[in-house]
Design goal:
This protein is of the alpha/beta class. It folds into two domains: about 5-105, Response regulator (Rossmann fold), CATH 3.40.50; about 130-225, Orthogonal Bundle (Arc Repressor Mutant, subunit A). The chain has eight helices and twelve strands. The strands form three sheets. Strands 2-1-3-4-5 form a five-stranded parallel β-sheet, with helices on both faces. A hairpin with a 2-residue loop joins strand 8 (about 145-150) and strand 9. The termini are far apart.
């Protein structure tokens, strides 16, 4: 059974997360303020942490930074009402695995959690292609870092998972349904058009001309291919 820790001071949000993930079969711990959250986060049985940024006591950024400083590698998804790019950068630089902005849907949160857990499981099993470089694009899947022309590109964990799967299957045309099953998970009920939306976002971040992509090529009615040609 997966164990999840949610650190959130908003009682309605915290209760919704606890109830939702408990229903899905997770063992859920919770904390309402920063110091309590930090203390509980040292539990080695915790599989993933959902961490609000704005907390009484120490904030989520400080918790994340302290955990990584102490060598705690438990996956962290940051939850916040903040949407500025600098906050996303800070969260990821402090060692968060993903960043989700409120308001978000339950389905999106579940998808993010499962994507992060799948990626960590792949790392443990040694199945992740750690580094990939093509042209002016450099990706480190273990460090969740992406650079284009030496400039940092901020990708979510879901975007890293999507990009990694496309690269793993490079030069192969992959159907939308296969991408959904392998990246989102077979138990996540979302439309195949979701893939198109995320591909469009990914192209905007890594392609020179998203409307005329060089690497992520679409095949109408079929799916997508990552090409190195």
């Amino acid at each position: 059974m997966r164990k999840l820790l949610v650190v959130e001071d908003d009682i309605s949000i915290r209760k919704a997360i606890v109830d939702d993930f408990t229903f899905e079969g997770y063992l859920v711990e919770s904390a309402v303020e920063g110091n309590e959250g930090l203390e509980k986060a040292f539990d080695p049985d915790i599989d993933i942490i959902l961490l609000d940024v704005m907390l009484p006591g120490i904030d989520g950024f400080e918790i994340c930074k302290e955990l990584r400083k102490k060598g705690i590698e438990t996956p962290i998804i940051m939850l916040t009402a903040k949407s500025q790019e600098i906050d996303k950068v800070l969260g990821l630089e402090f060692g968060a695995d993903d960043y989700i902005t409120k308001p978000y849907s339950s389905r999106e949160l579940h998808a993010r959690v499962k994507a992060v857990l799948r990626r960590r499981n792949s790392e443990k099993n040694g199945t992740v292609e750690i580094q990939f470089k093509i042209g002016d694009l450099e990706i480190n899947f273990k460090k969740f870092s992406c650079k284009k022309k030496e400039k940092n590109i901020i990708l979510t964990t879901l975007e890293f998972s999507l990009l990694h799967y496309l690269i793993k299957k490079r030069e192969q045309v992959i159907s939308r349904n296969e991408i959904l099953d392998k990246v989102w998970g077979e138990d996540i009920l979302v439309s195949p058009r979701t893939v198109d939306t995320h591909i469009a976002k990914l192209r905007k971040k890594i392609e020179d001309d998203p409307s005329n992509p060089r690497w992520i090529i679409g095949f109408r009615g079929i799916g997508y291919k990552f090409t190195c040609i």
